[in-house]
Please model this.
Amino acid sequence: EIPKNSLEKILPQLKCHFTWNLFKEESASCYLQDRVCNQIEFLNAESKSTMYNLLAYIKHLDGQNKAALEYLQKAEESIQEKHDEQTEIRSLVTWGNYAWVYYHMDQPEDTWTYVNKVKDICAKFSNPYSIECPELDCEEGWTRLQCGGNERAKMCFQKALKEKPNNPESSTGLAIAMYHLDKKPKKNFSVNALKQAIDLNINNQYLKVLLALSLQKMNEKDEADKLVEEALEKAPYQTDVLQKAAYYYEKKGNLDKAIELFLRALESTPNNSYLYYHIMCCYKEMAIQIQNIEEPKASEYREKIEELRKLAKDHMDKVFENGLDPLGAPSEFTKFLEAEKCYQKVFGKEIPEAERQPLQPHSCSLQKYQGKSEDTSAVQNGLESFHLSQTSTEKEEMQHPSQ
Model:
């Protein structure tokens, strides 16, 4: 029989999701899972293995260890498909996750099997259970990027690039992390990193939209417009490209185009809170703008506003129907209240009681939280609660608000 205390000493030494402290609480947002699942469709094999490992960890946190094992198997298959010469090194994180999952399933023999797999590889580098290498740093960086840990992700990618300069995968990750950390519009330090990453990844349309958003902050509109148009032409169905491009047009003031792209992105991620938040922003802004618009344009706006209002309201209804506390997502809830206020003011309408009723289960009526819409700090605090990335990381831009 394998001593359990031996495993308890060894497992914390493994470099994997269980030892990286990815979340402050032992849970992940459902939005993160939806986003990761959606991204997999557009990723190459090596990136897919990273996402499958993350999904496995999320499933474990949800108490679904069998599902976690299925995702780990997919991660292994992706690694074997892409990395002939690096299969063993690239598998260390997956094997570490296997060991932890089996440990939590109280299957010590299976746990020990994967511990030994890790040990056999690490022994070649004179370390029993962990090694230092750029591949593992890059894997950790991408994982942290997905979970909103941009500062730590940046450090991981920088460390990897010291060993392998100009590596496309690490350069891309570093550029995205720097983009999300860049808070100074006039001195946008991420621009050079994004340009370098694009040179190494010429077909990465997501990077082009990030660069466009950075250039937009610097008022370099012509180049930014070209980048967004090119990205949409070459990746018309890629959800993270659509999201970022929509945000670009929202900031530009082209609400019609922004809404079109947000709605297209919703087709593949129907539960995406980030998208609903921005749809509510557009709904509110259009309600304000209609006051200064003459007919017949005003009629078109009224139809669009009603469409967006219904979409936003249906989403909020689902939040309550699923038993979720709206204060767990205050950014959406507050924006919805603000938009509803604008709707009443502009159209001179009281919201019908029948429409208000779905918002009242779970002790969360509009009246109860009406004061929240006056508190801008509540919006910021709510935005900060989302795990958002990355390759579509969205946490920081929800704070602007946007991804």
